[in-house]
């Protein structure tokens, strides 16, 4: 039997759990905090594979093993690796309070509506994009992915970081509120347990039925009337529906909406969970995007400027929607294609621009497809009858990055 004990947030390890253990495995600080049974072997966790091999030797001899872990070991913890290797039936899990629950308790906030993301041994960009898109996130940190790196990546985003260090240690525990810039400027050492990223204006949230990841919207491709726009200069909902299907925005993604206009695509991507940057050159367009984002309760970062000039300051996107560009369209498509990790979608009213946009995508290693969208909507006529009113045709072109071409994209 392998007994897995959650500790590290102030809960002592019961003496009876350790009694009779032939092997005790854990982090150095966990092992130093307990009295090992006489004759028990001690393994300090570093690389997981060698430790699992030793555990397998003891399990094979039917000798009792105790594994010490932080907080709740079934929550982004070692229980997964142990269950995959030895089977859940061999585990006796004694959970402690997770660092996430403890950190939220320290600041007096509920966390059933928080998104929890691990950056421990993983790419930090997913955690950064979750923090950008969601008003309440908890980030499990690790070497090279701590408060400083998170703060530097979030930059000017309107967030407060709560850095919780050495949780449960009466002498060393610290819980500090800092701005992303303040977090980026400090050396936090190795005692950080978790970082909370909060939009404090929305930190309480509302009543939830499902914990964690926010519920998906019940509809998308919203009617144009649900967005402020100028002179019908907005991506029509039929076009938006297919564009969203090809973009595939989701939690953890970063999407660019280039030539955003009203920001309808940006807002829809944000409603589906992605972090979004809208690029718009018209000052009144910038204001409309901000207003539409507020009206739909989502975060959209708006960059005022012309593409491709302003794109260099942005993080690499997973997906890009291009709804404007004029004569600069081939250059804009090329600049986006060189940076996009997954897909680029381009909407064009002028058919003459399709070949150049397609060439820009294929030269960047994308496979391309497209469709001319023509739709007619029901429209009332006098006498209680209905006609079909045609909308302007739009050519939608999309490129999907092939595995071989992804090698040149910053990871």
Would you give an account of this structure?
This protein has 411 residues and is of the alpha/beta class. It folds into 3 domains: 2-97, Tetrapyrrole methylase, N-terminal domain (Cobalt-precorrin-4 Transmethylase, domain 1); 100-202, Methyltransferase, Cobalt-precorrin-4 Transmethylase, Domain 2 (2-Layer Sandwich), CATH 3.30.950.10; 224-408, Vaccinia Virus protein VP39 (Rossmann fold, 3-Layer(aba) Sandwich). The protein has 13 helices and 19 strands. It has helices at residues 15-18, 28-32, 48-60, 79-86, 99-106, 124-133, 147-154, 180-184, 237-247, 264-271, 283-295, 329-339, 354-363; strands spanning 2-7, 23-26, 41-44, 65-70, 91-94, 115-118, 136-140, 160-165, 174-178, 192-198, 254-258, 275-280, 301-304, 319-322, 343-348, 366-373, 376-381, 385-390, 394-401. α6 packs across α7.
């Amino acid at each position: 039997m392998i007994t897995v004990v959650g500790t590290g947030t102030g809960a002592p390890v019961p003496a009876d759990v350790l009694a009779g253990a032939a092997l005790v495995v854990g982090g150095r600080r966990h092992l130093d905090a307990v009295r090992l049974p006489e004759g028990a072997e001690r393994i300090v966790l570093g690389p997981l594979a060698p430790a699992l091999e030793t555990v397998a030797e003891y399990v094979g001899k039917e000798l009792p093993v105790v594994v010490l872990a932080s907080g709740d070991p079934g929550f982004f913890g070692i229980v997964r690796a142990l269950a995959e290797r030895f089977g859940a039936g061999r585990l006796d899990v004694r959970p402690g309070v997770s660092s996430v629950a403890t950190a939220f308790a320290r600041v007096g906030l509920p966390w059933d509506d928080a998104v929890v993301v691990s950056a421990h041994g993983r790419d930090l960009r997913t955690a950064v994009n979750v923090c950008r898109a969601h008003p309440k996130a908890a980030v499990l940190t690790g070497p090279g992915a701590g408060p400083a790196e998170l703060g530097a990546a979030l930059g000017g985003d309107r967030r407060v970081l709560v850095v919780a260090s050495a949780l449960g240690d009466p002498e060393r525990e610290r819980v500090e509120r800092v701005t992303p810039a303040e977090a980026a400027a400090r050396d936090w050492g190795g005692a950080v347990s978790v970082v909370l990223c909060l939009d404090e204006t929305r930190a309480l949230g509302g009543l939830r039925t499902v914990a964690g990841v926010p519920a998906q919207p019940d509809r998308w491709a919203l009617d144009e009337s649900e967005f402020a726009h100028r002179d019908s200069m907005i991506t029509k909902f039929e076009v938006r529906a297919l564009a969203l299907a090809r973009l595939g925005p989701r939690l953890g993604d970063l999407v660019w909406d280039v030539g955003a206009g009203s920001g309808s695509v940006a807002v829809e991507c944000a409603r589906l969970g992605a972090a979004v940057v809208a690029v718009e050159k018209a000052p009144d367009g910038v204001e409309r995007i901000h207003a539409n984002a507020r009206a739909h309760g989502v975060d959209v970062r708006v960059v005022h400027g012309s593409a491709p000039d302003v794109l260099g300051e942005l993080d690499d996107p997973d997906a890009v929607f291009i709804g404007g560009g004029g004569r600069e369209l081939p250059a804009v498509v090329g600049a986006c294609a060189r940076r996009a990790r997954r897909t680029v979608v381009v909407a064009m009213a002028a058919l003459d621009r399709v070949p150049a946009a397609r060439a820009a995508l294929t030269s960047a290693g994308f496979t391309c497809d497209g469709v001319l969208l023509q739709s007619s909507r029901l429209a009332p006529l006098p006498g209680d009858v209905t006609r079909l009113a045609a909308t302007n045709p739009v050519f939608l072109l999309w490129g999907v990055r092939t595995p071989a071409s992804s090698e040149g994209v910053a990871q």
